[in-house]
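Task card 7
Instruction: Convert sequence to structure tokens.
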Amino acid sequence: MRRFIVLLVLLASALWPVPSSAQQRNQLGPLCTTDTTPPDQQIDACNKIIALRVFTGEKLMTIYFWRAVGWNKKGNYTQVIADASEAIRLHPSVPAYNLRGSAYYDKGEYDIAIADFNDALRMDATGDVGIIYHNRGNAWRGKGDYARAIADYDMSIKMGPKSAFSYQNRGASKQALGDIEGALADINEAIRIDPALPQPLTNRAVIWRARGDFDRAIADTTEAIRLARAKVPVNIMTPPGSVLISAYIQRGLAHEAKGDTASAKQDYAATLQGTASDANSKANQATAKVRLALLSEADPPRTAPASTSPAKTAAPSPASPPGAVAGRRVALVIGNGAYTHVKALPNPSNDARAVAKGLRDIGFAVTEGIDLDRAGMQTMIREFLREATRSQVAIVYFAGHGVQIDGRNYLVPVDAQLKTGASMTDTMMDMDTIMAGLDDQLRTNILILDACRNNPMAPQVAAAGTGRAIEASGLAAPSSLGSGSTLGAGTLIAFATAPGKVALDGEGANSPFSAALSRHIGTPGLEVQQMLTRVRAEVVAATKSQQVPWSNSSLLGEVYLAEKPQ
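Output:
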């Protein structure tokens, strides 16, 4: 980006010796077209130049580009995209495509970002475009295509000059593919190239935590925080606040894994104080919010399940020593059917018991709840999320009613009741909160929801006259699978049917989906996505194509629930 910035500075320097309003432009010009100008001043200066209406074509393109740079410094990526698009319309250029692509990347819209970087490379594939390859590598990495990301970082490094960021991000991609030694070598090289750069230290801390070396992880993130506080990142492409947010969340996770909850709480609170403008920072803050609540809030008293014969719930297995991760596998299984204010379901309790037994048989420590009210669900989910910090694989299974409200998915406790003037979401459990609590670069997460029955709340919504957008049926596709996606980890979410569609509760003792899942979940040597393919085929056949199970995955490798044959 630096070469392109220099070229546009040279172009901008030719703008100001123009007769009309020359003195005003001479004052405004440097403020608008200097990358060190504070963002508000830069945007204001560019606004005033545009208002003069004396420039057109390539010269006006330059002003819009620099105003986009100002918006980028503020983390306002919608405005960056608008101004960069206008710059491209006036006069297509490599820096404008690069800047717009980077803004799309920071918004988490990776495919559009890649398209912009491709356009930049088509315009100038032989020039000094190492930064374009680097940025496209970031977008491939965001999509989870680590092989393509590494190839682009290779090109960036080959074209030079040596960039600490390219080594750091190539190392993160190798780490995602399980090449820990290669990752460590690249990240160490990034630190050698620029010892004052905090980001590689934060990335290295993830590796130390994976190895159980929490003191090293804490030392690296502490130094990253010191460096970030000592000097604001000078790279205009770095989202504001992102460096400190990343360092604090990683140090908090290391403190929590070590068992130092007081320090972890302080770091999670510091994570939330930062300004999150990009997708990764927002995901990190969501995780910090849940982790802080888990460590800070006292559990509410557990209430008896709302069924005529209270079901037994299995307590979590004895707490592991702090930081115990390797090999530990935990599961949360909930079946809610005995609803008191909406339509009851006969099968979820049977479904949950069958799935829980299958998971115990293959070595999972299972927390099981049957017919739980909201307080009971809250308590059980909190306990499970605490246990999950010390696990390598975590599974969440829920059978019962589920709804989507404003595009977010909620699990319905057995005592859910919507009253006039009350918030619907206060009566249910938010799936996004559960996913944020599980989000971690060291864990594989699998969420399985047989919760796509007809919306049970519709009559209550109509009676209460609420204006909230509660859908008539089905659940929503997840907007994100979390930011944690390295070291063979990632997230898989499976629904009993496609988003927005309705699943069947079944006429037998189990729903069609859970019956098929119970038959295959313990099959030795069956990879989890292959298992779900078999489940899908059985459900489609059993329901005569009325129900087609659906899944989405960011898993980075093969995951076997039952032992893989040697």
